[in-house]
Specification:
The chain has 84 residues and is α+β, with helices and mostly antiparallel strands. It has 2 helices and 4 strands. The protein has a domain of 49 residues: N-terminal domain of TfIIb.
């Protein structure tokens, strides 16, 4: 079995299946899901995804609903900017 390379990132597990573009999009989504985000309550970078659209801060324990792949979706961010 071949090792996954630097170019393939996390989508190397799919091998040559599904096509390059779809594997690239999947790798981008997986990277966004697994990074730590800023907590809206305690302001620490310790928010991780618990489940689909459920996010939890490991520092203060604050749990909230957000986007499926990011705690704040682009639509939410644009609405937040308009309200200021």
């Amino acid at each position: 079995m071949a090792k996954k390379g630097k170019k393939t990132r996390s989508s190397g597990k799919y091998g040559p299946r599904y096509g390059r573009k779809i594997r690239k999009l999947a790798a981008d989504i997986e990277e966004r899901v697994h990074i730590k985000y800023k907590c809206p309550q305690c302001e620490n970078y310790s928010v991780k995804r618990v489940g689909t659209a459920i996010w939890k801060c490991s520092k203060c324990g604050y749990t909230f609903a957000g986007g499926t792949y990011q705690p704040k979706t682009p639509v939410y961010s644009s609405l937040e900017a308009k309200s200021k």
